Every structure is written in structure tokens, then in C-alpha cells.
Amino acid sequence: MKILPDTDALIAVGIDIAVVAVPTAFHEKAALQLGAAGVHTLVEKPIAHSLEAGQRMVDAFRDAGLVGAVGHIERFNPALQELRRRIERGELGALYQIQTRRQGPFPSRISDVGVAKDLASHDVDLTAWVVQSEYEYVFAQTAFKSGRAHEDMIAITGRTQSGVIVNNLVNWLSPMKERLTVVTGEKGAFVADTATGDLTFYANGTIPLEWDTVSSFRGVSEGDVTRYSYPKREPLRVEHENFRDAVLGRPSDIVTMEQGQRTLLVVESALEAANSRSVLQL
Description:
Dihydrodipicolinate Reductase, domain 2, 2 domains, 9-stranded mixed β-sheet
């Protein structure tokens, strides 16, 4: 394996595709260099350090007719892939609410962005993808507890254009690592644990409750609980296979740069909402 010193040397070799996995501040420069050289590119999330930079990337790859993708890898987690398939089949009925919890210790490798762009961007992307609807408005709260310039906790609440209520809770302040997505709907609730790749369904009960006070308090009764069995493929491999297929012109489900830019818009809006203590329409 030959190690090359910079992007120019990489382009000179004559590559067809590339993955940009440098700190966020350098995404734009590397991606634009690759795009100008006609190289299809997957950029790790978030798409860029600013909306202006992200839009320049979107425009460059669109105008050049190149495949530009963003590495929101959680879409390719087996639990979320299975969840999305079952929602598409109508197994949850109408969607009411989606909650995500992404909590754990601070990763020392992150220095140029806060928890919103580094982690909450995962949840914003997967939320819009799972429910197949973009965020309509957001409100958020942030905290700065570790002495860094960037936020280490954010709680985002909002609603999608389809009317689904959203809550994303993300922090770098918990000794307990948690990666959960809960989708509640007409027929029950799906719980996807993306740390283990497990998906569980909690069905609404179909047996009438004879205990009136409990029935009136709960609203719905507790039904069967099912933990599904399905193939669990490694998300990074599935993501890169989809990127390869997109470059080859095959059907794929990549996160496009346009979608990555939309996710960055939601995250930036959440940070602005937290700073201004206001609700922002998107």
C-alpha cells in the first residue's frame, strides 16, 4: 500500500472515487479539489463546517455531474434498515412521534465541532429518513459543561412536515453509552438499538382491560413484545457498497449532498434556536 502526502498526489494517481475523512473544517477544500478533478466523493458527516461551504460542495458536484454523498452511517444500521422496511409495509400505521437518544462519554478525537454537528447530525438525518419527512420547525437547548468552546449537550424538539413530533437528546456527558431510536405510532412502538443492531416491537394490546382505572390511565393497553431476527450487516460496508452502486449507475440509497446539506441546516437552526431561545421555522 502506498501512502500519499496530500489530495493532489491522490488525484495524480488517477482515482475514480474517494472518501473524505478529515476534520470537518477541511471537508470543503478536499471535496472541491476532488470534484474539480472528476472524482466521485463520499464526505464524512457533517457535510461541512458551515452552510455556505456545504452549498458550494452541493453546487460543484451537481454541476459536474458527479456522485456526491455524505457519510451519515446510521441509515445503514441493520436495526434502522429493518425499521424503515417495516414502516413502509404499514406495520406501525400512522406515525405519531420519533425520539432518539445518543449519549456517552466525550471522544477526545473531536476538537473542531460540538456535539450537535458531530452526533446530533446522525439523529437529524435518520429521523427525516425513517419518517420520510423533513423537519418543519425546531427548538433546542444546549449546555457547555466540559470547559470547551463548543456545546457538549443538546436537546432538540420539533415537528416534521408530516406532523410527526420529534425529540433528539444528545450529549457527551454520560458515562452510559446509549443509541436508541423509538418510533411510536397507531399500532404500537418500534425500539431500535443501533449499538447492538436490535429491533423490538411493542404492540398495542388487543385484549380488553377489565380494570377500568388502569385502562383509562394508560390510553392503550400493553400487547405482545417481539424482538426481530434478521441479517445484521456491518453498516460501513453497506454504506460504501451503496456509494459504489451509485457511481456505477445502479439503484442505491446513498445520503446525497443535498440531503446532507438539509441535515446541516436543521442542526444550525437548532443551535440558533438554542442561542435565541426561540422556535425556528425551516
